[in-house]
């Protein structure tokens, strides 16, 4: 049974069984390997993609639940997203395996809260594990983009 | 045979040509006189160009540096390329890095004798090798220019890949001169730059080359490999260490759409499918029965209790198990009047838990021979173990090494455990069909190869001035080397490195250090910073207890002992860290500071951590680090490794704990095995001691100091020591 998905602005018909997690559909069937497999239970964030702008753990979401939603993967950011540029500028990645998930969580954060506080960055990024421990640069890169492009929100001004 | 792989000879050809190593190696007679590297590279076919095995220069002048080392986060690719670029005077912006094929002759780690990455040696072992390679290539260009322009070679300069002769006004790019350069015989001992002439090494221009690929999803990991006709396998593994398959029923598994085959292999039962999800679904309904007659039945609690008894001298030791002395002088049992500090320390098993679980892609039985496409950390060992399974010469096993999503030591082991498993499956599938073995997180955590559970017992008596007069030290831990080709005859130094040779022991008149290395069924392995993961903690936390008993400042107390031991580098890093941290000034309100210093992998690190207690648990803020790692190639990546290493060490200090119950892993995923997360990351400042010594390790030395620094801050805040890690038990 085919499921119709909108991935990075393109409509895709996928043949995987409806209970297949989105992650494996993206990786094995659609050929988008930017989202990574880390834990399979939504605990590490390596598989993070956006569904209608909300960060979701694609390893734990059956593809049938995504029908009709707009899915954005790291490939959909195009390589010139301000966060990607900041990641390169600060040499954030080490092994890099978690970084696509980190960037997707950060992109969702800045889209809804362009100038987050330290605590808001912490909260938004808490679900993305980095075993290399690049957290300090991840944090700095998000702040850099927020300061460059973000307008102060009522919340962060307070 | 040696002459056929002579690197200079290989470089002398103007065109690239294949080096066929050891194809004549059929009869045993030919083996006589071969070095181990010859033997292990037998069967290899590696193309080497005019500029040698490490450098390729394209017609447009672009330089490619061939890295013999895997890149798994440590930044070696950029560092290795920078060494070449410095001596070659290449335009850094036009230097890229490519991963070498597996070839133990051409690409051996010069400190290991085989190809492999570990022990924080990637830069250190390559330093002279790549400087010479870069300088030799440079000489080929200056020689070619001199001949073409008919000017003295000594007057020729090179800058940013442009070769110039100022007096005649002539200049040309590498690309323009490449044919002439390739025909020049490279000097065997090219002249190298003096350190003060470096223009790239040590500057902030040495940055990673892979950040864009890793920020866009384009970097290729084993997990991302997708070859034509590839099948995916997952394996049902034994629930307990040492259990074997006694039978299985694959009927339900075979009914799952996409499942192609179910295969018994030595380590379990593999489900082979057309997609990952089908393989996982198949395994979910596979029924396997296990023979547990030889399985390990003990757990962490039993092992710890046993180790504790043995260290206290209670209970008989099993046959053949005996204490081995690692440091001994004077009479450490002598009585005296000074104060005594006595404590035991306990450390759990630790999983590496790299973000990318172990995986491998293998093709066996095809026309092209056996090929592995994966993140190999020790190519030669993986070749040997694969060759044994498929029946081929080790050097003939092709390995395309990819980026690894972390390793921290896990991808290098003497058994090539997950590699061998993949090869076993691919061999049964046959016909050269690519088989990707995927381990789920649960597979990865349950497979063992942990940092061993470790127990220390320490008794120190102080002299009248408050400094150690006697030091008795017992360590109980599994050997990492036992059963391996590198197994030592006596004790395994990796179990005690960091205690053994410590400047504190050097400064103590009477020392009795012994280690006991019992065996059990849990496979163990080096874990980023190896022995220092526990020895640094014991030594450095003990030091603060001693300073406290002596009524002395922890920094001043250490400096005195370092002076007694003649540990000049320790003194230098400690003074620098103390100065940058403002140790002589009061800490911010609510904050206490803790200090620790440790030498490992040739580098010395001092850290001062600022800690706040939140609900009784340590919350680490600023961490000031000073490191002496010899010549700094990339200050930015050294800082990155210190930042990351500190997080890795802090994760173990606060959270990491693998628990084994009745021979089975009790924590199989991040819900049960908490690790450091974003909000807990400290703000690390890194200060590098200027040095012209050869570069030493950077990937691991940043790991072991943070835990004792935090424990020492907690001791300062509460008066209570921390004798068990992790500090926050899940």
Structure description:
In chain A, 37% of the residues lie in helices and 13% in strands. Chain A contains 6 helices and 5 strands. In chain A, helix 2 packs across helix 5. The radius of gyration of chain A is 16 Å and the shape is globular. The N and C termini of chain B lie far apart (58 Å). Chain B has 3 domains: 52-211, Aldehyde oxidase/xanthine dehydrogenase, molybdopterin binding domain (Aldehyde Oxidoreductase, domain 4); 222-294 and 358-438, Aldehyde Oxidoreductase, domain 4; 302-349 and 449-718, Aldehyde Oxidoreductase, domain 4, CATH 3.30.365. Chains A and B meet through helix 1, helix 2, helix 3, helix 4 and helix 5 of A and helix 6 and helix 17 of B.
CATH topology grouping of the largest domain in chain A: DNA polymerase, domain 1
Shape of chain A: globular
Radius of gyration of chain A: 16 Å
Q: Show the largest interface.
A: A-B, 58 and 63 residues
Number of DSSP-assigned strands of chain A: 5
SS class of chain A: alpha+beta
Number of DSSP E strands of chain B: 28
- How many domains would you count in the coordinates of chain B? 3
Structural class of chain B: alpha+beta
* CATH A-level architecture of the largest domain in chain B: 2-Layer Sandwich
Distance between the ends of chain A = 51 Å
Report the biggest beta sheet of chain A as strand number plus sense, adding barrel if it closes.
Answer: 5 strands, mixed
Mean pLDDT of chain A: 94
Give the full name of the CATH homologous superfamily of the largest domain in chain B: Aldehyde oxidase/xanthine dehydrogenase, molybdopterin binding domain
Task: Note the main attributes of this structure.
heterodimer; A: 158 residues; Ubiquitin-like (UB roll); DNA polymerase, domain 1; five-stranded mixed sheet; 37% helix; B: alpha+beta; Aldehyde Oxidoreductase, domain 4; seven-stranded mixed sheet; 18 helices; 28 strands; disordered N terminus
């Amino acid at each position: 049974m085919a499921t119709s998905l909108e991935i990075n602005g393109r409509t895709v018909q996928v043949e995987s069984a409806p209970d297949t997690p989105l992650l494996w559909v993206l990786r094995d069937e659609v050929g988008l390997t930017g989202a990574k497999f880390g834990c399979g239970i939504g605990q590490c964030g390596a598989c993070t993609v956006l569904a209608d702008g909300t960060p979701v753990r694609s390893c734990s979401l059956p593809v049938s639940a995504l029908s009709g939603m707009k899915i954005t993967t790291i490939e959909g950011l195009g390589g010139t997203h301000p966060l990607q540029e900041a990641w390169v500028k600060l040499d954030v990645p080490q092994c890099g395996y978690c970084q696509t998930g980190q960037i997707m969580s950060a992109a969702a954060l800045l889209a809804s809260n362009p100038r987050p506080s330290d605590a808001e960055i912490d909260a938004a990024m808490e679900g993305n594990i980095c075993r290399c421990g690049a957290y300090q640069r991840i944090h700095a890169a998000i702040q850099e983009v927020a300061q460059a492009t973000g307008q102060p929100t009522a919340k962060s001004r307070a | 045979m040696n002459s056929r792989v002579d690197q200079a000879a290989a470089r002398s050809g103007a065109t690239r040509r294949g080096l066929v190593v050891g194809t004549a190696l059929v009869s045993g007679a030919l083996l006589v006189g071969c070095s181990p590297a010859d033997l292990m590279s037998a069967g290899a076919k590696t193309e080497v160009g005019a500029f040698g095995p490490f450098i390729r220069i394209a017609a447009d002048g672009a330089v490619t540096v061939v890295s013999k080392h895997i890149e798994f986060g440590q930044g070696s690719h950029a560092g290795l390329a920078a060494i070449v670029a410095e001596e070659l005077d290449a335009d850094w912006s036009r230097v890229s890095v490519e991963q070498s094929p597996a070839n133990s002759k051409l690409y051996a780690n010069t400190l290991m004798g085989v190809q492999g990455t570990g022990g924080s040696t990637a830069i250190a072992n390559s330093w002279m090798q790549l400087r010479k390679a870069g300088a030799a290539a440079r000489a080929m260009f200056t020689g070619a220019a001199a001949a073409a322009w008919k000017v003295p070679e000594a007057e020729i300069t090179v800058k940013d890949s442009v070769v110039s002769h100022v007096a005649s006004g002539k200049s040309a790019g590498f690309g323009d001169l490449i044919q002439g350069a390739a025909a020049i015989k490279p000097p065997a001992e090219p002249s190298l730059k003096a350190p003060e002439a470096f223009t790239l090494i040590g500057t902030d221009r040495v940055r990673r080359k892979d950040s864009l690929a890793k920020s866009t999803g384009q970097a290729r990991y084993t997990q991302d490999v997708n070859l034509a006709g590839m099948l995916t396998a997952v394996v049902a593994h034994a629930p307990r260490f040492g259990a074997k398959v006694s039978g299985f029923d694959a009927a339900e598994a075979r009914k799952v759409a996409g499942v192609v085959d179910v295969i018994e292999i030595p380590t379990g039962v593999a489900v082979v499918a057309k997609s990952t999800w089908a393989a996982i679904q198949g395994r979910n309904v596979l029924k396997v029965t296990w023979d547990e007659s030889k399985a390990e039945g003990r757990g962490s609690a039993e092992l710890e209790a046993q180790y504790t008894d043995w260290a206290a001298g209670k209970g008989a030791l099993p046959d053949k198990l005996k204490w081995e002395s690692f440091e001994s002088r004077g009479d450490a049992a002598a009585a005296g009047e000074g104060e005594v500090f006595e404590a035991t320390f306990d450390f759990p098993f630790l999983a590496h838990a790299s973000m990318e679980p172990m995986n491998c892609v293998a093709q066996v039985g095809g026309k092209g021979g056996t090929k592995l496409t994966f993140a190999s950390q020790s190519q030669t060992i993986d070749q040997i173990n694969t060759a044994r399974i498929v029946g081929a010469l080790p050097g003939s096993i092709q390995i395309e090494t990819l980026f690894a999503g972390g390793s921290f030591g896990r991808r290098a082991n003497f058994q090539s455990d997950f590699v061998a498993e993949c090869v076993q499956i691919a061999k049964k599938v046959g016909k050269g069909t690519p088989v990707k073995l995927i381990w789920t997180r649960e597979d990865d955590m349950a497979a063992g190869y942990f940092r061993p559970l470790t127990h220390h017992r320490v008794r120190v008596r102080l002299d009248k001035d408050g400094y150690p007069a006697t030091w008795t030290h017992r360590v109980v831990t599994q050997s990492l080397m036992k059963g391996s080709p590198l197994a030592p005859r006596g004790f395994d130094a990796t179990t005690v490195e960091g205690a053994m040779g410590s400047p504190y022991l050097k400064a103590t008149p009477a020392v009795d250090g012994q280690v006991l290395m019992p065996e059990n069924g849990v496979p163990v392995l080096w874990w980023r910073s190896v022995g220092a993961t526990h020895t640094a903690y014991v030594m450095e936390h003990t030091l603060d207890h001693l300073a406290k008993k002596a009524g002395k400042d922890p920094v001043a107390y250490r400096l005195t002992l370092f002076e007694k031991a003649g540990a000049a580098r320790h003194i230098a890093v400690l003074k620098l860290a103390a100065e940058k941290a403002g140790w002589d000034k009061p800490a911010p309100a609510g904050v206490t500071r803790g200090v620790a210093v440790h030498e490992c992998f040739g580098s010395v690190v001092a850290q001062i951590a600022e800690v706040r207690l939140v609900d009784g648990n340590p919350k680490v803020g600023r961490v000031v680090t000073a490191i002496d790692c010899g010549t700094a190639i990339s200050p930015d990546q050294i800082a990155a490794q210190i930042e990351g290493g500190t997080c890795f060490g802090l994760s173990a200090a606060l959270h990491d704990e693998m628990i084994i119950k009745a021979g089975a892993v009790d924590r199989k995923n991040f819900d049960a095995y908490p690790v450091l997360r974003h909000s807990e990351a400290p703000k690390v400042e890194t200060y590098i001691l200027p040095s012209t010594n050869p570069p030493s390790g950077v990937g691991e030395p940043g790991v072991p100091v943070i835990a004792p620094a935090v424990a020492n801050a907690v001791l300062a805040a509460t008066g209570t020591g921390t004798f068990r890690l992790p500090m926050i038990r899940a």
